[in-house]
Specification:
Blueprint: H1 5-16, E1 23-24, E2 32-34, E3 44-48, E4 53-57, E5 61-65, H2 74-93, E6 97-101, E7 106-110, H3 118-124, E8 129-130, E9 133-134
Antiparallel strand pairs: 1-2, 2-3, 3-4, 4-5, 6-7, 8-9
Helix pairs in contact: 1-2
């Protein structure tokens, strides 16, 4: 089922991030693109997958957002997803989330004083990023 995600998300983003540059895409494009703050991170794209939104951070990682309100009206589900994405982006743009990976495989976590484990670094790359750019190793 296709949810009215565009109608729910775009007003929330404009309200939450009024001073940030964002491009609204057409039918065959990313729903929204926030231009990169740092070249090594890349643009942040939001894709409409019909029943969920995918936030893609450069070529590093991505995250899916769906609604647990499976019995709710489609408009309520769309609002739930849009709120989740907006809350996540608030944290991300404030550099409170660090991320790592290679696009199809990656991860993210709340920013921490502890370094990622050796296995994570071997499998998903040694670099760790925040929206502002790469973190010091």
């Amino acid at each position: 089922m296709t949810l009215p995600l565009r109608d729910a998300l775009i007003p929330k983003l404009r309200t939450a991030f009024p001073s940030m540059s964002m491009r609204i895409g057409g039918e065959d494009e990313a729903l929204v693109v926030f231009p990169a703050k740092h070249a090594q991170v890349g643009d942040l794209r939001i894709q409409d997958e019909g029943d969920e939104l995918t936030v893609i951070i450069g070529d590093i990682t991505h995250r899916h957002f769906g609604s647990a309100l499976t019995r709710a009206h489609p408009n309520e589900q769309a609002e739930d997803i849009a709120t989740q994405v907006t809350d996540y982006l608030r944290q991300l743009f404030a550099d409170e989330i660090e991320f790592y990976g290679y696009g199809s495989g990656g991860g993210a976590r709340a920013r921490s004083r502890t370094k990622r484990g050796l296995l994570s670094r071997l499998l998903l790359g040694w670099r760790t990023y925040v929206w502002s750019g790469p973190l010091e190793q």
